[in-house]
Design goal:
201 residues, 39% helix, 11% strand
Length: 201
């Protein structure tokens, strides 16, 4: 319940049912409220359909945000979305992972990747929504605990806190030590190291 008029509602978009439903409702209840849809960057089916003015089918998608990753949105939902959505933006999957962790650590909210899309979008909309009354729809808490390690990994990569490098070394004693002395700083660490030795075959 909001006593103040709602300026923006930010809502996750998968097949389009939730966003078109909320948009339809608020087009009657509060026509001045702007509805912004959010999709994962790896599955922008609604965004691309709206930009092209017709329903399209994506050839390939990233299924990490499984609750909102579709190759094609619903036809009926698309027609409604054209009328009621202010726009649709995309959010990188790594940002979604950072948001999942932030919601849990700071607010004790358990959100699945699709449910965290709306909050993840705030940083990308900050100039537009500054000083406005904003509602984020956190739509699901079906977070599989076995995915926690992957979520942390993707978050750290996105935030630039973790990197992977493939390096060729000469096969001689001391080569690795020389590399580490030159590259690692006092606050750096190696989380995983894998060595493959070339053969003469």
């Amino acid at each position: 319940h909001s006593e103040e008029p709602i300026d923006y509602i930010i809502v996750p978009v998968g097949g389009g049912g939730l966003s078109s439903g909320i948009g339809s409702y608020f087009s009657v209840l509060s026509p001045s409220t702007k509805i912004i849809g959010v999709e994962p960057a790896g599955a922008p089916a609604m965004k691309e359909s709206l930009e092209k003015g017709e329903l399209i089918t994506l050839k390939k998608i990233d299924k990490f945000v499984d609750g909102a990753s579709v190759k094609r949105v619903g036809e009926y939902n698309f027609e409604i979305a054209r009328e009621v959505l202010e726009k649709v933006i995309t959010v990188p999957e790594g940002k979604v992972c950072s948001t999942i962790l932030q919601l849990y650590n700071e607010q004790a909210i358990v959100a699945e990747p699709a449910g965290a899309l709306s909050v993840a979008a705030l940083d990308f909309l900050k100039d537009e929504i500054k000083g406005k009354n904003v509602v984020c729809v956190v739509s699901g808490s079906n977070n599989d605990i076995t995915r926690t390690a992957e979520i942390k990994e993707r978050s750290m990569l996105y935030e630039g806190l973790k990197h992977y490098f493939i390096v060729d070394f000469p096969q001689r004693a001391g080569a690795l030590r020389e590399f580490l002395d030159k590259v690692l700083g006092p606050d750096d660490d190696i989380a995983h190291f894998e060595y493959s030795k070339k053969t003469s075959r």
